[in-house]
Design brief:
By secondary structure, this protein is an alpha/beta fold. It has 2 domains: about 200 residues, Rossmann fold (3-Layer(aba) Sandwich); about 90 residues, Helicase, Ruva Protein, domain 3, CATH 1.10.8.80. A 5-stranded parallel sheet has the order 4-7-10-1-11.
């Protein structure tokens, strides 16, 4: 069995790691696209993330890894068994990691229906595809820019809905497909169409680390790993377990995380001031901010959650600034958010002054009377 380099041992690339963790906490965010040059730990991080995610309960023998606590999402055959009163055996299983090959066809991705058997015998036979294997796990697409656009579109549709629907000749089959979607690409080999780029919820642009000390740290850790990987894994195991617990606790805390009307106004004003088209970015930022608040052990989002979410949701959505200088772009975002905060504070103060002025005026009228 191949051993994986620990997620917590990856040097630097904090923004990439944070985006991956937040998607693991809340897969409904909609996935993350990692753009960067070769040798920047893109695939290493994706594989390592799946390895540290909490184990999950599944029904023994179920190819779709359905959540036993959510019978409403069961495929038709499993629903019939549950309705008939069958008691399922529940087993623990590690989070799956599914690597989608660049050569994958539509049938390989979504699965296939046996039309001949359906017509001749009246039986609905479905051969699960990649999306079924990825349910409640991690679906990784390396070199996503080289994948057929139609396949990418299908995959993003399913990632957004959490359900895979396969229809052939009037026959349909539905199964749950909720997964952490991770795409990676090297921009030097071509880009995705803007329509597909926008459908990835988050995007991280990464480069090789320039700091000599950090590069030395990378060398030392890799040499240590290659010399004795067991000792290296033992050394990092406490950090891995701690992060696993944090992700699990954040998942449980997420439904309790609240947002206010002021938070919605902040997001809307920020997107409007940045000239972002459409409304997908607004929704993505809210979901990401909620996941970040849950990860930080809070039950209310704040401006820092919103700013961090915007840093991840906007790199591929800003037309006139493709984030070539990431630090400059982040500074601009921070300035915009500060301006919005100041405007909101001034408006709130004016409203308070108006409210305070009304009773005084009323009192004067009463005295005159």
């Amino acid at each position: 069995m191949a051993t994986l380099f620990p997620f917590t041992a990856i040097v630097g690339q904090d923004r990439m790691k944070r985006a991956l963790i937040l998607n693991a906490i809340y897969p409904q965010i909609g996935g993350v696209l990692i753009r960067g040059e070769r040798g920047t730990a893109k695939s290493t991080a994706a594989r390592a993330l799946a390895a540290l995610l909490p184990e999950m309960d599944v029904i023994e023998g179920d190819p779709f890894s359905c959540d036993p606590k959510q019978p409403g999402s069961f495929p038709e055959a499993l629903k019939k068994r549950a309705d008939a009163g069958e008691k399922f055996k529940i087993v623990k299983r590690k989070t799956s990691f599914v690597n989608l090959p660049v050569s994958a066809t539509e049938d390989r991705v979504v699965g296939t229906l046996d039309i001949e058997k359906a017509i001749q015998k009246g039986e609905k036979h479905f051969e699960p595809g990649v999306l079924a294997a990825a349910n409640r796990g991690v679906l990784y697409v390396d070199e996503v820019n080289l994948l057929d656009d139609h396949v990418v579109d299908l995959m993003l549709d399913v990632a957004a809905m959490g359900v895979n629907v396969v229809e052939r000749e009037g026959i349909s089959f539905t199964h749950p497909a909720r997964f952490v979607l991770i795409g990676s690409m090297n921009p030097e080999e071509g880009d995705l169409r803007p329509q597909l780029l926008d459908r990835f919820a988050l995007c991280v642009d990464i480069m090789g680390i320039r700091d000599p000390k950090a590069r030395m740290n990378i060398l030392e850790r890799n040499l240590e790993y290659e010399a004795d990987y067991k000792a290296f894994l033992d050394k990092w195991e406490p950090y891995e377990k701690a992060l696993t617990v944090e992700i699990d606790e954040a998942r449980q805390r997420l439904p309790q995380v609240r947002h206010s009307q002021r938070d919605l106004a902040t997001i809307a004003n920020l997107m409007s001031s940045m000239g972002v088209d459409g409304h997908r970015a607004d929704l993505v930022i809210l979901k990401t901010a909620r996941a970040h608040a849950a990860f930080m052990a809070r039950e209310e989002i704040n401006d820092q959650d919103i700013l961090m979410a915007a840093e991840l949701a906007l790199p591929h959505r800003l037309k006139r600034m493709p984030f070539q200088d990431t630090e400059q772009a982040m500074s601009m975002l921070s300035d915009k958010l500060q301006q919005i905060e100041q405007q909101a504070a001034q408006q709130e103060q004016m409203m308070q002054e108006q409210q305070q002025g009304k009773p005084q005026e009323t009192q004067k009228k009463v005295k005159r009377g």
